[in-house]
Amino acid sequence: SSGINAEWPLRPGDPVEFFTDTTGSTNQRFYVYFYDADKKYKSTFGFTFNTVQSSGFYVYGCTDTRKPAKFEPCNGPKRLLSLRKGPGVLQVYCNGKEILNYKYSEAAKQGCSSVFNTPMKYLSIRNYDDVTKNWRSAQVYKKRSTNAVFEFDFDKRPVEFLTDTTGSALQRFYLYFYDVDKKYKSTLGFTFNKVQNNGFYLNGCTDSSKPAKFTPCSGPKRIFTLSKNDGGLKLWCNGDLVLDYSYSKAVKSGCRGVFGNSMKYLSIRSHDDVTKGWKATHPPN
Prior knowledge:
Layout: E1 6-7, E2 16-21, E3 29-35, E4 41-49, E5 54-59, E6 78-86, E7 89-94, E8 97-103, H1 112-116, E9 122-125, E10 132-137, E11 142-143, E12 149-151, E13 159-164, E14 172-178, E15 184-192, E16 197-202, E17 221-228, E18 232-237, E19 240-246, H2 255-259, E20 265-268, E21 275-280
Antiparallel strand pairs: 1-9, 2-6, 2-10, 3-4, 3-9, 4-5, 6-7, 7-8, 11-21, 12-20, 13-17, 13-21, 14-15, 14-20, 15-16, 17-18, 18-19
């Protein structure tokens, strides 16, 4: 909320993510305040951009207001921006791609390092900002390990996948689900090109000869967020809900029985040639 200091409960190195939408926006400004543990103002991070390009970014205490540092955000009116404060550096990702790696030691102002070496505990989305819709804490992506089975409490937390279809021929997303005993329960998969796809397959629910249709967001680099509840599965693409699948409407009557069980392990399979990493996350608002 604009003007309200929201606690930023992150471990060192973990980013904060912002869902932005420049559709119909005139100024298209992103503007965030940072505060220390005592809620004392420390710095501002902001930039102005159109649908594709940026006019540069501003960091109070680091950059020169007359000469904003240049960077290029990813394309499209809807973007997921990730901001990470690491040792000696401020990093920004746009839809999973790093677009800014700002080193305090290279700042125009000498006091930049001392400003950002202070732990930042609170943030505020300001009223100057007219593109940010919501924000959330996040974790750094874990590197993909093909066919490895990793523990994940899918009943409690959504899981997020960073994908890249650049140069990929088959462009398949392929995931296995397992129960608490690491026993295989189901598969979720879909094949797509850079814009459209030919449907998704859910073992035990859909008909393999007639995959259910849905259209993900466009672009070669996409972030898919997958959540599970008592009634079905939901899938987001770059923050937009693209699939709301109800077990009760499944082609196969045993679908609810398959996903009614607890899913405690996941595996990105060798059939998958687009997923680069994964992490626990929160459902997009």
